[in-house]
Write a structure and sequence with these properties.
107 residues; alpha+beta; two-stranded antiparallel ribbon; 4 helices; rod-shaped
């Protein structure tokens, strides 16, 4: 039987591979943060909260992913496709443009 108590039984020549690579109850650490350690089947439940889980920019400004902990900062300060208010909104300007187009509007 498997040492991880998954209930599966294997012949000896298959057991080592099962316990090390296939068993859903094998010890496993999150591939992204390396801080969360549990079982392989449980780490999937951690990913929706993992601060290092890779997420794409919802504006699709880049093919690269951001760690969850950095995505909000990217959207707030850096994303060229994020629609932002004009700096002169306080003076009545109601223009909303992608960040990359705002410099041309301000000239």
């Amino acid at each position: 039987p498997c040492n991880h108590k998954c209930g599966d039984v294997f012949s000896r020549h298959l057991l080592a591979n099962h316990q090390g690579e296939e068993c859903p109850k094998r010890p496993y650490s999150c591939d992204y943060c390396r801080e969360y350690a549990s079982t392989f089947e449980d780490v999937i439940n951690h990913w929706p909260e993992c601060k290092c889980y890779p997420l794409s920019c919802p504006n699709q400004c880049t093919p690269y992913a951001f760690e969850r902990q950095h995505l909000a900062d990217h959207l707030s300060h850096d994303c060229p496709l994020m629609v932002v208010n004009c700096d002169f909104q306080y003076a009545g300007c109601e223009v909303h443009l992608p960040r990359k187009d705002m410099p041309a509007h301000l000239q």
